[in-house]
Design a protein that fits this description.
Blueprint: E1 2-9, H1 14-23, E2 28-32, H2 38-43, H3 45-62, H4 78-102, E3 106-110, E4 113-117, E5 120-123, E6 130-137, H5 159-162, E7 171-173, H6 179-190, E8 194-196, E9 207-214, E10 217-224, E11 227-231
Helix pairs in contact: 3-4, 3-6
Length: 232
């Protein structure tokens, strides 16, 4: 059993605590199964804002005539847009991990941790269990997938996958109305994807009843105050 002063699960905001503790001379274990940096760096505000900037530039060009500037978009380099965002994000994540590994009072355990008893944890890939008087769980958030009939048999994306698509989709139906959905709809729609959402198309007060796929085309069946409708 390895003993630490503090165990931190997650390498996002939890690293602020681990850094303060290690600077004070206390021995800290950091458990992380994926890239370092947390939700904001890896799949949240930083990559999304870099992609949204591209959408904003596109709209600026498209609306330039209103300012007496006549311009047009020749083409979109989707691979460059995606690579630009995530090369920087991935490099930052690697730098954060190196910094923690080089810290004198921090030991990094790459893998999924689980509690095995009071104040005791096991990490996949490591034989020895860890213990500390205090364990901080700062594992971040994950996308929630709604319980929709047929969804488990239909290809779908969460925001995690949507931010790293290797190719631009021609059509996109977005389920939900929160700010993450709004950002993604803006990004894809501004760059030419036909998006089923507000400035594009919007179904308000809609309950998604079922999704299905046939011949490569996905259909979403919804119920609105006006009745049922299918969205291809």
């Amino acid at each position: 059993m390895r003993t630490f002063d503090l165990i931190v699960i997650g390498s996002g905001s939890g690293l602020e605590v681990s850094a303060d503790e290690s600077d004070a001379g206390r021995f800290v274990a950091v458990i992380e199964e994926g890239p370092f940096g947390g939700t904001c760096l890896k799949r949240g505000c930083i990559p999304s804002k870099m992609l949204i900037q591209c959408a904003d530039v596109m709209q600026t060009v498209q609306n330039a005539a209103a300012f007496g500037i006549h311009a047009k978009v020749e083409s979109i380099d989707w691979q460059f847009i995606a690579q630009r965002a995530f090369e920087e994000v991935d490099a930052d994540a690697a730098m954060i991990e190196r910094g923690n590994r080089q810290s004198e009072n921090v030991e990094v355990f790459k893998g999924r941790g689980r509690f095995t008893g009071p104040k005791a944890l096991a990490v996949e890939g490591f034989d020895e269990e860890l213990t500390a008087e205090t364990t901080l769980i700062a594992a971040g958030t994950r996308p929630w997938v709604p319980d929709i009939s047929g969804l488990d048999q239909t290809p779908y994306l969460t925001s995690d996958e949507a931010l790293r698509l290797p190719e631009q989709p021609k059509h996109l139906t977005v389920v939900g109305g929160g700010y993450i959905v709004a950002e993604l709809a803006h990004f894809f729609g501004a760059l030419g994807t036909e998006v089923y959402q507000r400035r594009f198309n919007m179904a308000l007060d809609a309950q998604v009843e079922r999704v299905s796929t046939q011949g490569g085309e996905i259909t979403v069946e919804v119920t609105t105050p006006d009745g049922k409708r299918s969205i291809p």
